[in-house]
Design goal:
mainly alpha, DNA polymerase, domain 1, hpI Integrase, Chain A, 2 domains, three-stranded antiparallel beta sheet, 13 helices, elongated
Length: about 300
């Protein structure tokens, strides 16, 4: 998160407006204290900038929402970008905070219309998802094989070879698993209960077959594929995130989230399969989402420009 301006000074009038808005955020919206602090901090910074901008000589002008026009907000957007050198996502956070305030001020009839409505957020080029490298994947698999149990090995193998969402892994039941001699698939109900069949390659099939056989021998087979060893109930997203973080730490793979295993599958498949088929496997409603996996990582782009180097 970008560093905020250090305690901007505003007039007594502006302070009173902040207190009134704080009551709304607290009593009506019942937001978390941290969220309220962020909204008020963003708004206070804008108020301080307005009062400084409006000041003429020795004449001070208190902040008032009626004095704010759309060009005021666009100039402030430029100030954040050019003078404070804020990144686009930080600028957009400030603007969203102001849009929320002026929408409320309009609803409360403090101003006749919302000046922030026409103000556009700063356009951003989507960043490609976290790309797990070949060496990092190998280190992760080695770590779970060395210190994990068969459940954890199967879990990570399946995530890397199917691209399932964490929530879909949690809901996976044995009745959803179809294993055949040379093929197999998973019956998945994803976002908005949309059904799809996810094919299983031989690596995923063998991992599931071995895990299922082991569960049956122990007499622990139940409806869900992946269960907590302590409670014997289905694993939760939090539990899976904990497991991935534990093995990532052992493998020396930094900043790895459970969802990054889905991204790893998407990257690898995008090199081998048409996008429309990858979208079908991953349960994407739009090819725009799948296109993220053909965007080059910084390493990809570096390697590309190195191909025309003179040295």
């Amino acid at each position: 998160m970008a560093k905020r301006e250090a305690k901007p000074t505003v007039s007594t009038t502006a302070q009173q407006l902040l207190v009134t808005y704080e009551h709304y955020l607290t009593d009506v919206l019942d937001l978390r204290p941290a969220t309220i602090r962020n909204y008020l901090s963003d708004l206070k910074l804008f108020m301080a900038w307005c009062e400084q901008t409006w000041r003429g000589g020795d004449t001070e002008v208190d902040f008032s929402p009626e004095r704010v026009a759309t060009p005021t907000l666009t100039r402030y957007r430029d100030y954040l970008q050019r003078d404070l050198k804020r990144k686009p996502n930080t600028v957009n956070r400030y603007l969203v905070s102001l849009k929320r305030y002026f929408s409320w001020a309009t609803d409360m009839n403090l101003i006749p219309h919302d000046p922030s409505r026409p103000v556009k957020l700063v356009a951003q080029t989507p960043r490609p998802p976290r790309h797990l490298s070949d060496m990092e994947e190998e280190a992760l698999i080695t770590a779970v094989a060395a210190s994990g149990n068969l459940r954890d090995v199967t879990l990570i193998t399946l995530m890397l070879h199917t691209g399932l969402r964490v929530s879909e892994i949690c809901q996976l039941k044995w009745e959803h698993v179809v294993l055949r001699k040379r093929s197999g698939f998973l019956c998945i109900w994803g976002k908005r209960n949309k059904y799809r069949e996810v094919p299983l390659n031989i690596t995923a099939r063998r991992a599931l077959e071995k895990y299922e056989a082991d569960r049956k021998v122990d007499g622990q087979i139940g409806p869900y594929v992946f269960v907590s060893q302590r409670t014997q109930t289905k694993l939760t997203p939090r539990g899976i995130s904990f497991l991935i973080a534990k093995y990532a730490d052992q493998a020396g793979v930094k900043h790895l989230r459970a969802h990054d295993l889905r991204h790893r599958f998407g990257y690898r498949m995008a090199e081998r399969a048409p996008l429309h088929r990858l979208a079908q496997i991953m349960g994407h409603d739009s090819l725009d989402t799948t296109m993220l996996y053909v965007r080059g990582t910084p390493q990809d782009l570096q390697q590309a420009v190195e191909t025309i180097a003179w040295e």
